[in-house]
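Researcher: Sequence recovery benchmark, item below. Answer with residues only.
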């Protein structure tokens, strides 16, 4: 099946998307998916037009409004900075366009609420790039939890560390300006973490949060010192609706042993997920010995089955992050091809739930880590 594709933005993350989409013909899928690169919208048209043509885009336009004028588009892929998500999503929903968008859903909860209002009036199919749901180890852990492999869940710990912004020579950018990013490590990394909490464990009832900015100024393009007003580090203590307690820590200034790790503890054992071991979670019983994961413990989970089948179709890996984005994009294309929603899809409603937690976390942190009830 062929899809007419429109892309907004040609920065770093869009190139990750394109590496997957350009190679769909190599995937061993039950039905062949093909993307026709109809139009790219970029505010840097003169700089990006040559590479866009080499990528195969038929048209390059200088505004999102011009992109929307291309009537035959089957989907729009939004790869723009956070502060542009809301206006582009609102316009796309009004035009009943199917939308695949990078996270987060919006800059803040007010914007997210207006998106949900617009969504109720639209026939748009939608998905956010919460791609860690599609990590094989996460998908398998989802099945294990659905099948009660570790009994009643008591508590969990999640940590997600990067180190890029530890370097003081990294200059100011939109990611380090609250009015354009909506937040720092908590938004950038924490949105993924919160989505995994919702997906694997349950919705958040209340929380306490702490945030800190360690490098308070950075140089702009002119070499002048500019204030950083987003967090480098954040810690959340979450209580879920089902009374599970979760601690979640994120940082963009933590060198060594980087990436994402989850520890989930039940009364019959534990599950450990390490991004550096992406294929399989580790399962412990309450002896506590590591145990072999019986395939029968992963039966009957539609999300897991579908995710693993798409992964199996990738015969040659382009690297884990590109593979995850490819699986997520294929998931959305199959949603369009089959005209139905699949269980576990990280849609805009999931993004709205994440935005509610982000909003509550920043309220808590600004009020001396006071408990905030959602």
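Model:
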């Amino acid at each position: 099946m062929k899809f007419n594709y429109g892309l907004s933005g040609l920065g770093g993350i869009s190139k990750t998307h394109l590496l997957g989409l350009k190679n769909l013909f190599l995937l061993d899928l039950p039905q062949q998916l093909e993307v026709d690169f109809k139009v790219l919208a970029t505010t840097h048209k003169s700089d990006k037009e040559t590479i866009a043509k080499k990528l195969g885009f038929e048209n390059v336009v200088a505004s999102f409004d011009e992109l929307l004028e291309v009537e035959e588009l089957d989907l729009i892929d939004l790869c723009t900075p956070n502060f542009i998500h809301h206006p582009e999503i609102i316009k796309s929903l009004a035009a009943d366009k199917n939308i695949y968008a990078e996270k987060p859903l919006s800059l803040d909860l007010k914007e997210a609420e207006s998106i949900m209002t617009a969504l109720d009036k639209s026939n748009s199919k939608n998905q956010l790039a919460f791609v860690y749901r599609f990590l094989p180890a996460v998908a398998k852990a989802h099945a294990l939890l659905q099948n009660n492999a570790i009994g009643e869940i008591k508590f969990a710990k999640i940590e997600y560390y990067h180190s890029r912004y530890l370097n003081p020579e990294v200059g100011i950018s939109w990611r380090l300006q609250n009015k354009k990013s909506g937040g720092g490590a908590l938004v950038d990394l924490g949105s993924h973490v919160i989505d995994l909490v919702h997906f694997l464990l349950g919705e958040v009832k209340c929380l306490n949060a702490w945030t800190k900015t360690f490098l308070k100024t950075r140089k702009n393009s002119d070499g002048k010192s500019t204030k950083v007003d987003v967090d480098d580090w954040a810690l959340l203590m979450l209580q879920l609706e089902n009374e599970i307690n979760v601690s979640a820590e994120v940082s963009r200034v933590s060198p060594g042993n980087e990436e994402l790790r989850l520890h989930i503890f039940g009364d019959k054992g534990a599950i450990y997920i390490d991004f550096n071991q992406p294929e399989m979670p580790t399962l412990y019983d309450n002896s506590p010995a590591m145990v072999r994961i019986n395939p029968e413990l992963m039966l009957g989970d539609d999300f897991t089955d579908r995710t693993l089948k798409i992964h199996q179709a990738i015969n040659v890996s382009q690297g884990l992050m590109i593979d995850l984005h490819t699986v997520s994009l294929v998931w959305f294309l199959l949603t369009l091809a089959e005209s139905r929603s699949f269980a576990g899809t990280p849609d805009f409603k999931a993004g709205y739930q994440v935005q509610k937690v982000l909003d509550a976390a920043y309220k808590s942190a600004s009020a001396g880590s006071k408990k905030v009830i959602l």
